[in-house]
Amino acid sequence: MPIRDIGVTVVVLALLPFCLTRPWIGVLLWSWLGYMNPHRLSWGFAYNLPFAQMVALATIVGLIMTKDRRPLPKHILVYLMLALWVLFFFSTLGAFEPEEAWDQFSKLSKILFMTFVTMLLIYDVKKVHALLYVIALSIGIFGLKGGIWALATGGGNQVLGPEGTFIGGNTEIGLALNMILPLLIFLAWHEPRRWARIILKTTAFFSVFAILFTYSRGAVLGLGIILPFIFLKSRARLIVVPLAFVGYLIGPGLLQSTMPEQWLERMGTIKTYDQDRSANQRLNAWYVAYRIGLDHPFLGGGFRPFSPAVYQRYSPQDSFDLGNVQSDAHSIYLQVLAEHGFVGLGLYLALIIQTLITLRSTIAASRKDPALKIVHDAARMVEVSLIGFLISGTFLSMSYFDLFFHLIAIAIILRSLVKTSASTAASGAATAPVTARPQPVPLAPLLGVRLQRERR
């Protein structure tokens, strides 16, 4: 019997009672299963077991029984997510492809539901810190292994995510790694244990190489945006800015001399997109998505509207080719437009803009309060993580990525922590316990599962 299957099963079953008695741990366990997919790294009986459903059910039961929860925050982001959820339901009623649409609606509803559960149960610094640890290392471990593997093999093959998961493809794992890079840096800033800081920084370091060797142009562009943001938000700006300028001057030549030829050819198509088949397929998918949105501006075509018949109807007459038919829009924005119309896109963009506004407000309100230092730093790096999603997501369809909604929930929680601290200070009470420095998070459970090899 495979050891990996037994290990994952034992861990999940052993933690289920904690999901009942301390349901916030269930949120962490559900996140670990959702992002790392440890059961997908096995090859036996555990591969298809419904661990996430088991954990979600136990967490919901625990949520009902526990008093250790908070009311759902009365925040505009909560209402925007609820409005989107309702719109998703109505767009699914009239979907072009009903069976696929209802399947996608079911998956997304589970993500949104657990996002709201997160906001009910994760309400102090210790729990937010633990959640960020789970998210960052669950995805970062693929960056660590992928970066080492890419460098050891000369970068001749794509780095891919765990097979059969939401981040299994090269573009998907590239986007996910861009999003967790800032979180790894934040965790290293506030990690008191030297050995743990080394693990976090090493994971971030190799994740950069993993992103480069996904061969995803969108991921590389995203990396080029978020690295300067991380540097500018670091504590050594006077050193980092000159180094970044030197890197800008010598970087292109260094890449030219060190990167594999196939990588340079792939990235070169960014400039010569009109001569690249993949880029032209993406442009055609964007056009088809836009035309669907124009014809169905209120509710779109429902989830997964792209089919040969749709392409034949909306592609330019001189460019229709069955070989150009894509399964999605290759853009988070145009995907939402095609699936839910301009109303859905408007709500989606409002959700993004309001999240950025909320994070900016949190950063400003916590800047001068030493007791809120960790909240301040968390908001800054969550902001960079969201920017990474927005940039890389321009070129692939991960509009409903779990981590996107988790970041929104975390932004709401961080804002609530600032308000709680302000209310406590105004009442003249002692420093609010929610702003206390978090205890070190145990890393062993997050690092104990071996990783599968990337597909060649």
Structure in words:
- The chain is an all-alpha fold and 456 residues long.
- It has 2 domains: 1-69; 70-271 and 328-447, no CATH class.
- Helices cover 69% and strands 0% of the residues.
- The chain has 17 helices and no strands.
- The chain has helices at residues 3-21, 23-36, 51-65, 76-93, 98-121, 125-152, 170-189, 194-212, 217-232, 237-258, 261-268, 277-295, 308-314, 332-366, 373-392, 402-427, 444-447.
- It is globular.
- The model is unreliable at 246-251 and 444-456 (pLDDT under 50).
Low-confidence stretches: 246-251, 444-456
As a percent range, the share of strand residues is under 5%
Count of folded domains:
2
The overall strand count is 0
Number of continuous helical runs: 17
Global shape: globular
- Let me know the average pLDDT: 85
SS-derived structural category: mainly alpha
Reading the helices and strands in chain order gives: HHHHHHHHHHHHHHHHH
In whole angstroms, the N-to-C terminal distance is 27 Å
- Rg, Cα atoms, Å: 22 Å
Summarize the structure.
By secondary structure, the chain is mostly helical.
